[in-house]
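Hi everyone,

Forwarding the result from last night's run.
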Amino acid sequence: MFDKALRLRHLIQMKAQGDISADEQKELDDFIDRSQGNADLVSLLTADDGLELARALEIERKKAWMLIEPRFPAAFEIRHYKPRSYRINYLRYAAAAAILFLVIGSIYYFLRPSHSISEQKMVATNQRQPDAPPGGRRAVLTLADQSTILLDSSAAGTIAQQGNISIRKSENGTIQYIGSGKKLNTGLNTLETPNGGDYVLLLEDGTRCIINAGSKLRYPAAFTATERKVFLSGEAYFEVAKNSAKPFLVETDNGTTIRVTGTKFNINAYDNEPVERTSLLEGSVIVTSKTAERKLVPGDEATFNKKGYKLTVSQTNVNASVYWTKGYFYFSKAPLKEVMRQIARWYDVQVDFVDNVGDDRRIQGGLSRNIPLSEVLTLLKKYEPNIEYAMQNNKVLKIYRSKR
């Protein structure tokens, strides 16, 4: 196993340096083709923020336990990975990407179905091995006249007209509002994603929104007022088109308002989460609650506690807040129940914790959102071997302590 890990590191480093041979390229391609998770990791690690992901996942010997099977802890010299600069040097980036890829990608390479995995103990006859496909591009668009369009089954092209605004669906599933002539007030449209779905939306002003599972965004087909105001329930990432004369406002169900002119930020405002989080990547925003107002700079995250109505701001790794837009879950010492709420939304299942299991469990690490639920649970079980999972009635995922 150690030799295979070293071989993978060699292939990725040769690829990054441009010195990979035809045979080595084929070997790496074969590895990528073995699973969607492997392909997603290669794609992610060739992006500009690959080094940021490596830093965010805190790849060091003591913190890699969730990502590496226990028998491999010494296979990767990750304890030496200590980035000293935020500048992305090409070779240093390649080395960091190789380390991260080995840590996460080894899960998919070594833990194939050919390896024996113990059967989970069922607690009732109507329970089975838990599994569900990952989510995908699914959403419903509701127009101002309350007519609805099921986007995942709509053909590409113009799907609706709102005044002089055309609503078009691209081949890759993005919805775009395109205006011509004088803007008319046509009322609010609603883009709603179910559990197990997400979607990309381009508003009429050029603002790009990625809407996570179980979320709803209401917005005008055209921004005709003195401000650009939208309404969010759930989670969405925004890249706001700059227009200092017409601020962009996001109002959440929790009574907070995020005000910007042009910036990149993420809002997590799910009803079943105890706090609402606004994470700023670029520009500046002002977060206003009923009791306070805070201005954020890049790297800030505003946390609004729904019970105490307290609004606080702290510096954090805000890039981690948008890994979901790149196809990854990321957990930073997250309680198991919080982790399972994310998983439940994406795989469209209900979670039932038996006997308060999970109250004292915390998870650190990253997982692909493009693998079946069974693989996610297999990886989580390697971190928490005393917890069992079982599916009931094809919908309810029961989590309980092992009796072995």
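The longest helix spans residues 90-110.

Cheers,
N.
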